[in-house]
Write a structure and sequence with these properties.
- The chain has no helices and ten strands.
- It is an all-beta fold.
- It has a five-stranded mixed sheet, with no helix packed on it.
- A hairpin with a 4-residue loop joins strand 1 and strand 2.
- The radius of gyration is 13 Å and the shape is globular.
């Protein structure tokens, strides 16, 4: 019930306390994504693969994510960097 299609959750982990803090981001977000791969590349976190929640009226489903997204760590802004 907490899934929000079109929204991407981002959290910051404090490695000293293991506390999670929600981080607000902007830009072209991947959506509610799961089972993806994330890799740090320079000052970005790049997201590939996985599944994205879609909604048609009251019906939720999962679609394969074919796009590649990058989250800029300095600006906390998402960019779609590749679409097939």
């Amino acid at each position: 019930d907490e899934r929000r299609p079109g929204y991407t959750q981002v959290f910051r982990l404090d490695v000293a306390t293991l506390a999670l803090t929600r981080v607000e981001t902007t830009g072209d977000v991947p959506g509610w994504i799961s089972r993806h791969r994330a890799q740090r590349e320079g000052d970005e976190i790049v997201i590939r693969g996985g599944n994205v929640v879609t909604r048609d009226g009251d019906k939720e489903d999962y679609a394969d994510n074919h796009d590649v997204f990058a989250l800029s760590l300095p600006s906390l802004s998402w960019t779609r960097i590749m679409t097939p």
